[in-house]
Design a protein that fits this description.
Oligomer: single chain
Order of helices and strands: H
Distance between the termini: 75 Å
Structural class: mainly alpha
Radius of gyration: 24 Å
Number of helices: 1
Shape: elongated
């Protein structure tokens, strides 16, 4: 058997940084392929970018009985 030499702290740090970069790259690619997280969250081509945002009636929870309203 051969003796293993411990890696220097810099080699370990560089390896970790490369692994982290690869992980984020794969996660970004998968997220790009998956598309938007909910219906209606997509760009429509042109426009001014002043979309409605959330819609609704002021952020209340109308469908939640007993919430004090």
């Amino acid at each position: 058997m051969t003796a293993r030499h411990p890696l220097s702290p810099y080699a370990t740090l560089i390896g970790f940084a490369l692994l982290l970069t690869a992980l984020f790259g794969v996660a970004y690619a998968v997220g790009s392929m998956a598309g938007p997280v909910s219906p209606g969250m997509h760009r429509t081509g042109g426009g001014t970018g002043s979309g409605s945002g959330g819609g609704g009636t002021g952020g209340g929870m109308d469908g939640m009985p007993g919430m004090g309203h």
